[in-house]
């Protein structure tokens, strides 16, 4: 029998201190509880204990053996999380989220479904590539899979940015650049491909001199400029490697990056058109490229709030020196961060990448913003079906640092082994999460106070304490009832051992929580009556077989209770 339940809410708690009564309770067969500031009438939940004070630490919720299915009510549980729960139990559920870049290799409905089944939480569309019609088709396929087959995959578009030069050899797959081969980089536009010829953006060669080094995708291949022919560059390959379609270009002189496009706006005219497209298609996230200050992030967020009926989250990509210099203000202004290690590695020494990654991840946790570790996680799988051991170690290190999400780029977009790459991320992250838990490697987090108002500070402290309780008492899961996802994210920030099931009636919140570590968002009808919410969701989860006799659950809410 599922027996006790307790609730923690940030509402009205400022009137009383939170206390916990009867600490000697045997929680093995109970669902634990915090309640403060008001009393609950739990008669409808068949409570076995009496309400003795305003602070109620144990509510007996003896749910009888009834198997009735609540008429018309549905638990918005995505099929992948539900299957994982049934197979592995609460503690076996993966907590690190997976982002996959969609490209020509995985854009069919069948391939997208395979990625979703493999654990893709967010589908990323890089607006540098393909047409808007192509992106529109992919977005509608993803939404169709969500609606018709029970997935919960969010959609992210990634802006190109004005401070970028892109080159394209015209071939849909990668091309090997051999040592000493001669290539022409040209701004001339032509259809298809030409041997040893690469199309570049207009003005790409301005200020470039003979002897400068041209670097592809942060070091995938390198060339020396041997001749300027008008606006074109003739170059010799000095460091052979893979040349991907629509690759990024940078120039170096005497060991230093050649500064270019200084003063250009963060978002180009094309970016704004892509953002309008994203609004019209109802995307969930917009990732901003080459962010250099917080003002550009705030400007986009204000624009989205005035133009979009739904809440679209803005992620700032950290990929240049300016963004590192203003990191904290950018993190505070954004809804999340992407560590674009490929581009970042062009501007800072390679040996600094690991420590910079860990620093960014830590700051994001402190400021309660999700962080994605991206670029070259499994780069060898663009060509080969198995990763290098070093790549697996790199993935595991990002998981050990408690990054919210890991991202595939070319591995899924153009590589032939997208499903295998997702499987590697899933298995490596699950194994490292288990090791962290078994070794009791709970990452100590400096608890920077985020809330300014008393209710916000109370909510923050409730979540901090709830995670300590959940870990110490060994509860199986945390249930949080939330409108905008705030308390779910505060719980996630503390990286609890049990999974966090976030019940919300807002679809934008559900999709946004798809990027939060350890949070399984569920779309379900909620009311201001917390008693009814708890009763309904417990019945639904019981009917679905999610909770079993002996399971213990900690319940937290940021919904206003009925008085």
From TrEMBL:
Pfam families: PK, PK_C. Keywords: ATP-binding, Glycolysis, Kinase, Magnesium, Metal-binding, Nucleotide-binding, Pyruvate, Transferase. Its EC number is 2.7.1.40. The keyword Transferase applies. It catalyses: pyruvate + ATP = phosphoenolpyruvate + ADP + H(+). The keyword Magnesium applies. Coiled coil: none annotated. Residues 460-557 form the Pyruvate kinase C-terminal domain. Pathway: Carbohydrate degradation; glycolysis; pyruvate from D-glyceraldehyde 3-phosphate: step 5/5. Residues 93-422 form the Pyruvate kinase barrel domain. It comes from the Eukaryota. Its cofactor is K(+). Belongs to the pyruvate kinase family. This is Pyruvate kinase. It comes from Xanthoceras sorbifolium.
């Amino acid at each position: 029998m599922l027996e006790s339940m307790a609730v923690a809410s940030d509402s009205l708690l400022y009137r009383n201190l939170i206390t916990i009564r009867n600490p000697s309770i045997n929680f093995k067969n109970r669902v634990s509880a915090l309640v403060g500031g008001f009393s609950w009438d739990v008669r409808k939940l068949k409570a076995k204990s009496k309400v003795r004070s305003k602070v109620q630490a144990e509510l007996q919720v003896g749910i009888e053996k009834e198997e009735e299915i609540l008429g018309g009510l549905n638990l918005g549980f995505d099929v992948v999380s539900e299957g994982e729960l049934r197979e592995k139990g609460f503690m076996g559920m993966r907590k690190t989220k997976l982002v996959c870049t969609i490209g020509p290799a995985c854009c069919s409905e069948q391939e997208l479904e395979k990625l979703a089944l493999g654990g893709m939480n967010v589908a990323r569309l890089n607006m540098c590539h393909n047409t808007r019609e192509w992106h529109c088709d992919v977005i509608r396929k993803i939404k169709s899979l969500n609606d018709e087959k029970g997935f919960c995959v969010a959609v992210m578009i990634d802006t190109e940015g004005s401070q970028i030069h892109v080159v394209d050899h015209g071939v849909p797959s990668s091309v090997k650049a051999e040592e000493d081969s001669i290539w022409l980089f040209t701004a001339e536009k032509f259809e298809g491909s030409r041997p040893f010829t690469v199309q570049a953006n207009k003005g790409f060669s301005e200020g470039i001199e003979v002897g400068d080094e041209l670097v592809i995708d942060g070091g995938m291949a390198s060339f020396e400029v041997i001749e300027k022919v008008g606006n074109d560059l003739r170059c010799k390959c000095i460091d052979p490697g893979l040349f991907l379609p629509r690759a990024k270009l940078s120039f170096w002189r005497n060991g230093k990056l050649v500064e270019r496009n200084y003063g250009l706006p963060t978002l180009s005219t094309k970016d704004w058109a892509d953002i309008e497209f994203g609004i019209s298609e109802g995307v969930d996230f917009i990732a901003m490229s080459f962010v250099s200050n917080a003002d550009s992030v705030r400007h986009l967020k204000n624009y989205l709030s005035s133009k979009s009926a739904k809440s679209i989250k803005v992620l700032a990509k950290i990929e240049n020196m300016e963004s590192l210099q203003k990191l904290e203000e950018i993190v505070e202004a954004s809804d999340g961060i992407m560590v674009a290690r490929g581009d970042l590695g062009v501007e800072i020494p390679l040996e600094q990448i690991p420590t910079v990654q860990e620093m960014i991840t830590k700051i994001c946790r402190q400021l309660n913003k999700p962080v994605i570790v991206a670029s070259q996680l499994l780069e060898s799988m663009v060509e080969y079906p198995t990763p290098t051991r070093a790549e697996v170690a790199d993935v595991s290190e990002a998981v050990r640092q408690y990054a919210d999400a890991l991202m595939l780029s070319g591995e899924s977009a153009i590589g032939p082994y997208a499903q295998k790459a997702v499987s590697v991320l899933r298995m490596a992250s699950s194994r490292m999460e288990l090791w962290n838990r078994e070794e009791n490697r709970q990452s100590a987090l400096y608890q920077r106070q985020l809330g300014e108002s008393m209710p916000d500070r109370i909510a923050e402290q409730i979540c901090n304490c709830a995670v300590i309780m959940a870990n110490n008492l060994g509860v199986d899961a945390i249930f949080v009832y939330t409108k905008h996802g705030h308390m779910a994210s505060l719980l996630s920030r503390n990286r609890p051992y049990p999974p966090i099931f976030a019940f919300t009636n807002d679809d934008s919140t559900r999709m946004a929580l798809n990027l939060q570590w350890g949070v399984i968002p569920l779309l379900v009808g909620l009311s201001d009556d917390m008693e009814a919410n708890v009763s309904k969701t417990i019945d639904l989860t019981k009917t679905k077989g999610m909770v079993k006799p002996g399971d213990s659950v900690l319940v937290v809410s940021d919904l206003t209770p009925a008085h």
